[in-house]
Write a structure and sequence with these properties.
- The chain is an alpha/beta fold and 217 residues long.
- It has one domain: Rossmann fold (3-Layer(aba) Sandwich), CATH 3.40.50.
- The protein contains 8 helices and 7 strands, in the order H-E-H-E-H-E-H-E-E-H-H-E-H-E-H.
- It is globular, with a radius of gyration of 17 Å.
Length: 217
Amino acid sequence: MSPKILTVKENILASNEEKAGLNRKLLDRHNILMINVLSSAGSGKTSLILQSISRLKARYRIAVIEGNVASCIDADRISRENIPVIRINTGGGCHLDAPMIKKALNALDLDGIDLIFIENVGNLVCTADFDLGAHKNAVILSVPEGDDKPYKYPVMFSEADVVLVNKTDVLPYFDFNLDGFPEIIGGLNPSAKVFPVSAKTGEGMDSWFSWIEESLK
C-alpha cells in the first residue's frame, strides 16, 4: 500500500513552500525584514518581543503578527506599545503557515514598516516544518526547559539562525549547562548564533538587539 499520509504531507509542505517564497518576495519589495520567533509555550516569546520593541521602535517601524491557538492576551500586551499588531488564532492548529501570514501581510501598511516579528504558536514540533516567508528564525529555549531539548527537537534547532537561552536570571536554580550549550547547538547547526539572555532583567539583550540591527542592514 502506498504511503498516502506521507504523500499528503509532502503536497501540503510543497504548496506552503511556494507561498512562503511569495511572501518573502513581497517583503523584499518593501525592504522589510521578517523574523519568525519560535519556542515552546512559556519560554518568553512575548517578553522578548516587547523588550525588542521598546529598544528598537525609536529607530525602526515595527509590526507584529501574533499567533496563538486561542485568546488575545499576548496581542493585547503588544498593542499597548502603539504599533500595528495582527492577531491570528489558529483555532486548535499547532502552527502558523504561509497562507495565514500572507493574509496578515495584506492587512498591514507595508510601506510604513521596516521590521516584522512573528510570534509563532508555542511548540517545538510542527512549527519547524512550515516556512512562513520569514528571513530569519529565532528560537528561544528557556533555562527551566533544560539543555537537552536540541537533542529531542533537532529540526527546530537545525533551522534556527539564532538560539536565545532565556531566563538566565534563574540559572542558579536549574541544572542547565550554559557553558556547554553552544557546543550542542554547533553540532546541529554550526552557523547559528547562541545568546544567553534574560528578557526579564535585560541581561545579555544587547547581543540580540545588535544581531537584529545587523540583519536589518
